[in-house]
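Translate sequence into structure tokens.
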Amino acid sequence: MLAAERRDHLLDLLAREGKIVAKDVATALGISEDSVRRDLRDLASEGLCQRVYGGALPASPAVADYHARQTVAPDGKRKVASVAAGLVRPGGALILDGGTTALAVVDALPRDLTCTVITHSPTIASALLDHPQAEVFLLGGRIFKHSAVACGAAAVEAAQNVSADLCFLGVTGVHPEAGLTTGDAEEAAMKRALAARAADTYVLASSEKLGTASRFRVLPWEEIDGLITDAALHDPVIEQLTVRGIEVLAAD
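Result follows.
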């Protein structure tokens, strides 16, 4: 099988199975595992897969820059945001992650809602200026421009001094095996710090992120209280998570 044919085969397998096991592919094609791993390295360099131990998983489409991500699945993000906003109670305190879905949550919150919002995103804080009854606490640090959020040691330390009823967390990858992932190590650490300061943590994930993975794990499944998504309940990833006891809040 030519290299181009192997490439097409791997991409087809990734689309159908949701993962690639290098050993199984090598056996099926009668080639060495090293050849499969080289092919996967090439695909990963083009952003077509995320390499993991023993093979590869689908790469998240949410690795584009902040402005580009604003055009990805806007309807799905609005649906997710609507469900999330409904969980925020008057007088409550909310930790709100950065990103385009979190920005949609701000838009979904009632303008007259009395609440406290803690965020490490200048973009989120700015959007909340249109909510006169919302008290806003902005956590500072080095700005990670990809997601327009503060990260690093200073931001993590600031997060350790707050607490809230809810935390809405964004991720780039949602996969039953790989867990909840994102593309930057410091951003992943910041997300963990934020989640640790809330009584309940929900992950915001529009359907294009399901079944995909990025390089750095944010949290294992057992450390969140639920997943809010616009994916259908019969989606294979959702079915696997439900079997594992993960609460899934469907956004119709």
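Note: The radius of gyration is 19 Å.
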